[in-house]
Amino acid sequence: xxxxxxxxxxxxxxxxxxxxxxxxxxxxxxxxxxxxxxxxxxxxxxxxxxxxxxxxxxxxxxxxxxxxxxxxxxxxxxxxxxxxxxxxxxxxxxxxxxxxxxxxxxxxxxxxxxxxxxxxxxxxxxxxxxxxxxxxxxxxxxxxxxxxxxxxxxxxxxxxxxxxxxxxxxxxxxxxxxxxxxxxxxxxxxxxxxxxxxxxxxxxxxxxxxxxxxxxxxxxxxxxxxxxxxxxxxxxxxxxxxxxxxxxxxxxxxxxxxxxxxxxxxxxxxxxxxxxxxxxxxxxxxxxxxxxxxxxxxxxxxxxxxxxxxxxxxxxxxxxxxxxxxxxxxxxxxxxxxxxxxxxxxxxxxxxxxxxxxxxxxxxxxxxx
Length: 369
Prior knowledge:
The chain is of the alpha+beta class. It folds into four domains: about 90 residues, conserved putative lor/sdh protein from methanococcus maripaludis s2 fold; about 60 residues, CATH 2.40.50.100; about 70 residues, Helix Hairpins (Orthogonal Bundle), CATH 1.10.287; about 80 residues, Efflux pump adaptor protein, beta barrel domain (Elongation Factor Tu (Ef-tu), domain 3, Beta Barrel). The protein has three helices and 24 strands. The chain has a six-stranded antiparallel beta barrel. Strands 2-17-22-21 form a four-stranded antiparallel β-sheet, with no helix packed on it. The protein has a four-stranded antiparallel β-sheet with strand order 4-11-9-6, with no helix packed on it. Helix 2 packs antiparallel against helix 3. The longest helix has about 35 residues. It is elongated and about 130 Å long.
């Protein structure tokens, strides 16, 4: 017997209805899952309080002269004499070096010959001028002839004066071929040898003045915050700290050395002892005036954009804020914060590398340091 198609159709429909009802029932029985909450992280914190901190600066430097002069010839030529070496003491007027003065000597002789000729012409013009004046009195010559003699006389005088100026200039130029010391000092460098051809102004010998000495230090940028150059600096001899003196900051370089990125600080030493000669190593000590600062453990530091920062707990909602700070100094365990914090701020002191801004935290322990 063949099955009835209408019966098969109704059978399939019944199965579909039953399946749909079962799916709806299963969906109604399922409950939506709750969103997963981030755990509240316990942190160790410190409530910061500012203190007045006086900082001691210590730096190693060397003794240098306050003035050091590079001497050179005022004209070019060949060096025929160098009379000093590095380390020698010189006195005012002492010959340091000399040039071949053949050319300037010839110029001087030529100028002196011109002067002699000018003097002879002036003598002749003087006699002619006097004779013309006497003849004019007795009307032996015309007034025009007397005036011509007077003009010749004044022209001869002017030519003689010009020749004298040339002789003086030639003698001065000849003196430039001899290099002499201007004051007492010590030769710190020589940069020309006998036979060398030098140009005008080229450094030949450098002389360090025997006057006031200075201590010179290369100071890192972090220490360049001196509020007054009147700050006293104690300078001690590195090889013998019992030898010491006190000076004041005279100069702070406005720009850093391009190689070392340090700033040059010069401390004047008006009463430097004889045991501190030029070139010796010294140690400088200076106590800076007290400043308001915050001390934190080194474990508090993190960074934002390559700059130092700390995490501060916002007590209103127990979330973290990453706050940039300015560090004045630091050691292995403690950092001194100059800017970025306020009285009573709560700073996280441990585990900062695992924290993120706006993270909810719970204060578990107060740091007692």
